[in-house]
Amino acid sequence: MPAQAASQVPSAPMGAPTVIDAGHGGEDLGAVAAGVYEKDLALAVAKRLAAVLAETGTGQGALLRDSDEYIPLDERVARSVAVDGGEFLSLHINHVRSKKPRGITIYVYGKSSDRWARKARKVRKLTPLAAPPRQAVLASIRLANALVRSLRQEGLEVEPVRRSTYYVLKNPRLPAVLVELGYLSNPAEAELLKDPGYQDRLARSLAQGLAEYTMQARRKTERSAVTGR
Ligand SMILES: [Zn+2]
After folding, report:
1. Which domain holds residue 182?
2. From the CA of 94, how far away is ligand 1's center (Å)?
3. In 3-state terms, what secondary structure has residue 67?
């Protein structure tokens, strides 16, 4: 995309930063396999994404954690609201019993019987959160679709968007998506996920999707300013 677009926009074209949530941290390791922790891979891609957004001028990232810190889920939501961001992006790495599954999965809020819902309740006592506002859910779906498109354009394998009631997806103010960047349980994909070059590819492709989403959102705002709707 477009040197042209880049030269037309100032350094922080979209204003509100993308809140980037690197999953897990500290005592909460997340998945462990192939000699690595999910918490470390999520942080590596989160930092890379913030750097890419800054470098390319396509947006800005606000990292909820930039070190090996444990942050409870309710605190993550509270901090994201305090940042006054544009959207909330939580980064994780998948792990299942089988070595076969691979690829990227993106979740938005919605009723589902999947494992996320069950897992979230087990973690610890959390301040209950209501379902997020409908407008935020609709924006989350647009964001998820933009990310799927940009990741697929990059030649990466992405499953259709899934629904989950996972805690951080109930963000009361920001459109929120949770991205499982791949499967640590798949040995070939685990090797890829450890590779800084692949982490950079993921980050660039996510940045591209975010840029497309914000441009789309801005056009929408401009349209409603014109039509008064
Ligand atoms: Zn995780």
Report:
1. 3-227
2. 6
3. coil
